[in-house]
Amino acid sequence: MTGPTEFDLLELATPYALNAISDAERADIDRQVAVASTAVATAFGDEVRAVRETMAVVSAATATDPPARLRGAVLAAVHPGKARHSRWRTTLLAAAAAIAIGLAAFGAGIALRPTPKPTMAEQIMAAPDVRTVSGDVAGGTATVMFSRDMNAGVLVMNNVPPPAQGTVYQMWLVGDKGPPQSAGTMNTAAVTPSTTHMFNDLKHSSVLAFTVEPGNGSPQPTGQIFAKLSLT
Amino acid sequence: MTTAVLESLGYRSMTGPRPSSDLDALLRQVARGDADAFAALYDHTRSRVYGLVARVLRDSGYSEETTQEIYLEVWRNAEAYDSAKGSALSWLLTMAHRRAVDRVRSEQAAGQRESRYGAATVERSSDVVAESAISADERRRVAACLDGLTDTQRQCVEMAYYGGLTYAEVSQRLSANLSTIKSRMRDALRGLRNCLGAP
Questions:
Q1: Closest Cα of chain A to B154: distance in Å?
Q2: Full-model pTM
């Protein structure tokens, strides 16, 4: 049975499909559809789809050729050479929630506006062997995207509290052979709600470890490892 | 003939068989990072996308910017397209329309643009020549279906879909109650759908 509330919801299918609603209404409608009975949700979806298909046909009525220069601008924004690998895309999507803020801070160049010269981060993400790992660091989240082929990685930290004044977070690449190699430091000022950090020379390291070190960092870890991410 | 035209547009019957369209295939190739497919997709759809955006934004600079953003989003998010949920063309134009409406609303919120719908306007379709993919016949047919709506129905579609107003804003401008406006919109769309030969 379709109750009064459900009837109200179905009445909104056309305005919804025409984008004739506010963002708040859209969010509210999405919530209602999510909890509606299957029959109502299906009816709503069918109506939205029918309206959108109809307006797609109606678009013939407003069709107008854009200026010719727009073609070059649109096509220049994509990189034929930048092969998009399904695995990295999937991996990236999985990490997207964790790194969304980081990407924004890191610069739209990574994902939003590919630049003619790919940045190192872009190259890492485009690498066929790119991998992503995430973990908790001091109550926040750290995500590392790395590529063995590129021998480099990007660390994105969200909501990780900064280290105490006079100390730094130091990252270490740890492998089976040899002592840990420093992968860089972040001081109090460097750690913001969203922090990104590039590192390279992964070699055969299998873990990215975090310690707190005095001053500007140490040649070898002196503090306890308080977080680590497995690079395997 | 009607069916053939709709199918050539990537329109899928909602109850009958669903012919796969060229645009669907192109979009799947774009999802795999095929830049040639992306160029072809642009060429096949640019006049519909730009025309719709320009109709909503009424400013060629904004329209070019927004069209660029739309195609960049297509390049980045083509894999989000699910052919089980509708045609490629409707996916593209829904996204394009949403972007144009978001833009016009933010411009209006910023007070940079005067409200253009103090008096309801019903404009004829542009006579600007569009890409050859859209035949004059097809344009006439769609225009005839728009003409077939009642004035009040057409006004609602104009104000909401092309003017970027919410149905609540349309109801205020027309001093009509909300359910009347919702009914007009629904009836307008049903009228168009029937006229266009959609099931």
A1: 13
A2: 0.60
